[in-house]
Amino acid sequence: MKKWFFLLMLVLLWIQPLSADTSSSTAAQGTPKGSITDPSYKFDPVIEGDVVTHEFTITNSGTAPLKILKVQAG
Known about the structure:
This protein is mostly helical and 74 residues long. The protein has helices at 2-19, 23-29; strands spanning 34-36, 58-60.
């Protein structure tokens, strides 16, 4: 009896997320659109060990919040 109850609970928990309509909620929230004014920057030669910085301006021209999850130097 306990096995059947456990299996039934697993099936119900698995089916519930599949039945949710996520397409309409995504459309209602909009889409983020990130844009960078100057996407590249060439540094002048520096002495090894010096710290150099440059700020990149990223703007969100979309209609949903923009989440930046990872930044990588190229």
